[in-house]
Amino acid sequence: MVRAAALILSLLSAPIGPETVDLGHSTAVDLSSFECRDINRSTIVQRVCYSTNQRTLLVAVRGSYQHYCGVPAETYDALMNAPSMGVFLNRVLRIAGADGRYTCTTS
């Protein structure tokens, strides 16, 4: 009981900072401008974060984030409403976007 109380107290007193996700290659994205949703209805997609202003989509797939840029709000809405989010992700964002339309570039 004392351990549980100490754990709860330490969690409550821990500093709260901006949430970031690691995209690999020493690249982190601050999620403060994103709307994130945890996904429970997909076996592949665990979390989806979208920034309307930046038109940027982050999708957590099996523990790692995939980064897509230039994604219209309509495409994000279609992903969120797709009968299968995994199929939508593969067909629309990966395969149809293989021409580079959703590629994020750094400048």
Strand content: 25-35%
Q: Count up the domains.
A: 1
Oligomer: single chain
- Kindly report how far apart the N and C termini lie: 53 Å
Biggest sheet strand line-up: 3-4-5-6
Helicity level, as a percent range? 25-40%
- Order of SSEs: HEEEEEEHH
Major sheet attributes: 4 strands, antiparallel
Rough outline: globular
Gyration radius, rounded = 17 Å
Q: Report the structural category.
A: alpha+beta
Given as residue ranges, the uncertain stretches (5+ residues, pLDDT < 50) are none
According to DSSP, the number of beta strands is 6
Domain KTSC: 42-93
Organism: Bradyrhizobium pachyrhizi
Protein name: KTSC domain-containing protein
Structure description:
This protein is an alpha+beta fold and 107 residues long. It has one domain (20-99). The chain has three helices and six strands; from the N terminus they run H-E-E-E-E-E-E-H-H. The strands form two sheets. The chain has a four-stranded antiparallel sheet with strand order 3-4-5-6, with helices on one face. A two-stranded antiparallel sheet has the order 1-2. 16% of the residues are buried. The mean pLDDT is 85.
